[in-house]
Structure formats: C-alpha cells, structure tokens
Design brief:
Layout (H helix, E strand, L loop, with lengths): L1 H19 L11 H17 L3 E6 L6 E6 L7 E7 L19 E3 L2 E3 L7 H15 L7 E7 L9 H7 L8 E4 L11 E6 L1 E10 L5 E2 H4 L6 H10 L22 H7 L6 H8 L12 H6 L3 E9 L9 E2 L2 E10 L5 H14 L6 E10 L2 E2 L5 H14 L4 E4 L6 H9 L3 E3 L15 E3 H23 L1
Helix pairs in contact: 1-3, 1-13, 3-13, 4-12, 11-13
C-alpha cells in the first residue's frame, strides 16, 4: 500500500489541485455553474476508482454526488459523507495567493477548500484507489458528498429521508474535522450545535443628515451595538434568559479528563496573534471551546463605509449572529429564546427584525463502539501512537440528523489542524495530512470489517 501511495502521491496532489481550482462557493449564486462543475469533477473521479451506480442526485439546490461499491451484502457497509462546496473567499485582498489558484508552499496546499472539505474528501477517493491496488475492499462502501454544507445542508435531510434504503449502512465515516497536531493524533467525539441569525434594526425611513437630526432620533447602528453588547455580562456569560437551562454540566472528573488534552494557552495565543485568552469566566480554554455554549457576531454593517466622510444617520443596521450549542440544548429552543430576547430589548425608537438561518444539534459520539476502536487502531498504526478523544468546537449538523433518520453513529476521522485557517484567508492543508489520511483510511476499513466479522 505504501509503495503505491508513494509512487502516485504527486498525481494525487495534482488531481486535488485541479479540483481546488473550481470555485464551488455555494453561498454566492454567481458561482452556481462552478458548483456544478465541481460536482461533475468528483463524479468522474468516483468512476475512475471503481465506484458503481455513480450519479449526481438532484435536490432543490445543489446536487449530491453518490457512488457505491457493494462487494458482498453480508459484509458491513460504511457510508462516507463529505461536502464539495466551499466558503466564500472574501476578503480576497488578504490572501497571499489567489484563493482559487492553488499553490504548495512550505509543504502546505494553499487554496479555499484545501482542508474544508475538498482535501479531506479527496483522501477518501484516493484511499479507494489505494485499496483497489492492495487486495481490494474489505467491506461495502457508499459515498455521499453534498454541495450545500456551507449554507446549512437544507436539502440533505430531505434527500436522506427519501433515500433511506439507498443509504442503508452500519456506520457513517466523516473527515471534516481536525486533530491536535501532526505528532498528536486525535479523534473528535463531540461537536457543538448551531443557531444562526441575521438581525435588522430600522430607524428613520431614510438616511438622515447627522447634523440636522443627530441627537433627536435613534441611530440604528448605535442601537444595534448597544443591543449586541448587552448579550454578555462582565463575566462573558450570555444574558439571554433561560439560555443555560438545559446545558449539560460535566462532573469535576469529566472536566479533569477533558483537560488532559495537550494544550498550551501560550501557544494558542501565539498562533492567532493575541495577548491573552478571553471567554466565559470559570472555564479553561479547552472547556470554552468544547463544552460551553457561545454567542458571537459574525458580521455587522450599516451606514457609509466608503472612502472619505459622509455624515449620515443610517436608516438600517444589520448583523449576523451565531450561537454554538452544547448537549441538551436544541437549535429550535435557542432560536426562539434569542428571537424573543432580541426583540424585547429593542428601544422604542427602532423596529427589529430577526431572521433565523440554519441550525444544527450538538452531538457526542460513542468511544466504546467497534467503529471508534477501528479508527483509533488505524491512527495508531500510521501515527505510531494512540489518538486522544477530543471535543470539537465546530458544528456538523448532519451528524445528529444521521442518527435520528438513519439510526447510525458517526466516526469523525479528520486530519486537519486548527492552524489550517479554514473559513479564513490563506486556508491551507498540509501535504503530510493529505497523504497520511490516504494511508490511514484503508486501515479503518480493514479493522472495522475484521471486528464486525468477529
């Protein structure tokens, strides 16, 4: 296996780079043609590695790329999930190289989608090719790669509910997460949920001259800033009533176990150029990221932002606000609480509109399952040390959906790093990580098939 991978690693990288050149940005309609082009590219690669019944499954939005290889119905089946759409690359001027002109520099692949999630999806495609050259597949494999993860996977649940027989499997395998370090492998066993909103604050019926009207009318931008500031108290505790009612509280022993994860606040601060950490009082950085809910402003705008000066009081101000949720919270509950609270705290001089976007549920995956052990053993084989189970701060809402709709647990076998700058300018993915993923994934399949067979 290693020799075939070594002989073909440059070709694997070249193919990935060709895919990364396609700007499959799902959030911006102007890239719709490129999203479809990226799906077609992946479909062709599925066929090349021997997947069967390969198709672009239509949805109300972007198509799902599907393929399978059923070698024996009596063997276990692994359903691989990932996504081929990517985040917008804005602001382009902050990239050191164009986001859709991939370059390899310092053993890292720089491009939008390099890590999230095209690079990690492509590991699975090439792992199939490697296995075909080294004894074939040890179990059945189904692969489902969607094109709307970055905009909430609105059509994936519909597709899954309509295709339960097609997607019937024994476990889900996802590589859309990360690990602690290249010399410290880990497997994420927990993910936070998400509640995402856009808010609009409206004041006067038009932009006003700030000299003629300033001080006599509510300025929507000022009001919005005050409202946002009030959402945290002096201890960085979220002030929305009942927000914490259902938050799962870990025992002291569970918190101690969580904090055994190798972590240095000094390295954490240095990696993102900050003088100090910041967050909810009474919790460590590891806990703030993994087991506590958060509220963050993801964007805020209004008024004049062009060159020079324009003294106006804007008619409207806007913000995008997201909350990361932890076990026992639900996106429906938090969405309702946020909307009610934000409308309630608005002063009388403005009107407020809250528009919920997508949400997702928090999950904790089992560490005592056959599939988890197969993944841990696979990483131990290729990294030379046992991976550490960790809780991630991000959200993959479909993990909870797979459990509720298909009854399947998920293994989050990711190879990214926190330093890969996903969703940011200069996103990158290590060549080491890409190749190590291709090397490790076949071991998972073999371990899993052998364990289930008994």
């Amino acid at each position: 296996m290693a020799s075939y991978l070594e002989q073909n690693q440059q070709r694997f990288l070249t193919e990935l780079i060709d895919w990364l050149r396609i700007p499959s940005v799902s959030a911006d309609p102007k890239f719709h043609g490129d999203v479809l082009k990226a799906a077609e590219y992946l479909k062709a690669r599925f066929l090349e590695v021997g997947l069967e019944n390969v198709e672009l499954c239509p949805t109300a939005g972007n198509p799902i790329v599907y393929g399978e290889k059923i070698i024996d119905p009596a063997l276990p089946t692994v359903l691989v999930y990932g996504h081929y759409d990517v985040q917008p690359a804005d602001p382009y001027e902050l990239w050191d190289s164009p986001p859709f002109e991939p370059v390899i520099k310092d053993e890292k692949i720089y491009a939008r989608g390099a890590c999230d999630d095209k690079g990690q999806v492509y590991m699975h495609v090439k792992a199939l090719e490697v296995m075909n050259q080294d004894g074939g597949l040890p179990c059945n494999i189904k692969v489902m790669i969607e094109g709307e993860e970055e905009i909430g996977s609105n059509n994936l649940g519909i597709f899954v509910r309509a295709n339960k027989e097609k997607l019937k499997a024994d476990v889900i395998l996802i590589s859309d997460t990360g690990m602690l370090a290249n010399d410290e492998p880990s497997i994420e066993v927990g993910l936070r949920g998400l509640s995402y909103h856009e808010v609009e604050v409206t004041g006067p019926n038009r932009d006003l001259h700030s000299g003629l009207y300033g001080g006599a009318v509510a300025n929507p931008i000022n009001v919005l800033c005050k409202m946002i500031a009030s959402l945290h108290d002096e201890n960085n505790h979220i002030t929305i009533p009942e927000f914490y009612n259902n938050v799962a509280v870990l025992t002291d022993d569970e918190r101690a176990e969580l904090n055994r994860v190798p972590h240095s606040d000094d390295e954490f601060k240095k990696s993102i150029g900050l003088p100090d950490t910041y967050g909810e009082q009474g919790y460590t950085t590891v806990e703030r990221i993994g087991i506590r809910p958060t509220l963050d402003v993801n964007g805020i705008w209004g008024g004049y932002t062009g060159e020079g000066a324009k003294t106006v009081i804007a008619s409207k101000a806007y913000a995008k606000i997201s909350m990361r949720l932890v076990p026992n919270q639900t996106s429906e509950e938090i969405t309702q609480l946020f909307q009610q609270h934000f409308e309630r705290i608005a002063p009388s001089g403005v009107t407020v509109k809250v528009k919920p976007h997508h949400g997702g549920e928090p999950v904790v995956t089992p560490t005592d399952s056959v599939a988890y052990k197969a993944a841990a053993d696979a990483m131990e084989t290729t990294f030379g040390k046992r991976p550490i189970p960790t809780r991630g701060g991000g959200s993959i809402p479909i993990v909870a959906m797979f459990k509720s709709e298909l009854g399947l647990d998920t293994v989050l076998l990711g190879f990214g790093l926190d330093s890969d700058a996903i969703h940011s300018p200069n996103e990158h993915y290590g060549v080491f990580n890409f190749l190590k993923g291709i090397e490790t994934i076949p071991h998972f399949y073999r371990n899993y098939a052998a364990a289930v067979k008994g």
